[in-house]
Amino acid sequence: MCLPAWGGKAIDTAKIAADRAGLPAIIIPTIASTDAPCSGCAVIYSKVGVFDSVCYQKSNPAAVLVDVAVIAAAPTRFLVAGMGDALSTWFEASSCDRTRSPNECGGYSTTAGLHLARLCYETLLKYGTAAKIASQRHIVTSALEHIVEANILLSGIGFESAGLASAHSIHNGLTALPETHAFYHGEKVAFGVLAGLQLTDAPVEESAAVFSFCEDVGLPTTLADIGLENVSRESLMKAAEKACDPGQPIHHEAGRITAERVLDAMLAADALGQARRGR
Ligand SMILES: [Zn+2]
User: Fold this and answer.
1) Which domains are assigned to the chain?
2) What is the pTM of this model?
3) Is 171 annotated as catalytic?
């Protein structure tokens, strides 16, 4: 038996149940921790929390209703994890655009999809820190509203319309390591973004901007931050190999992607994260 992911667990379960019952799904999220609410797919994990597959429904939820006051009352770590998930949207979308890779619906991104993904990233940079502060005080502010839109709507529509790439594949690979299971989807995805930027030779300034954002809002920037303090190269290789499974969207990145390159990208992101902390 398999279970949907922590974070989007209840939502993904509802989507599958509604699909099998032939009913429309109406989603009312109480936290903004993933891009699950608006998407039509559900992520399936094994009973012990290892990524298994993605299950597609016949249609997306019929409606998604969000009360920002409810989101504001939830623990801040959920909102921050949602920002980590949303952080991947633009980078994965632009990788798919660069290589003309398919989106999550089996088609190709439109310009609108790409722009929504970009807007998602810009919204995070602009309002992320202020939204986190509002969440810590459990107050509804415009910044929090913008981030709720980014985490739930822009990220959901963005990834489904414009495609996935290295960040989510690295997340999926990391689930092979039990030490990471206490960490939320978006927290591991955020580290996947940082590693993905190393993998794809992103401009140094771009990588630095993403590190700064993660540091500001409290997203992981080192392996230790996702439970892998003393991880061995062999153990991390298991995650890298899983990230490179043939069906993984990491192959939407340009060039030939190998487990060795992914392993080195994760270690490089970790080294940079540690070096920045020591400054
Ligand atoms: Zn995600």
Assistant:
1) 3-64 (3.40.50.1970), 75-277 (1.20.1090.10)
2) 0.94
3) yes
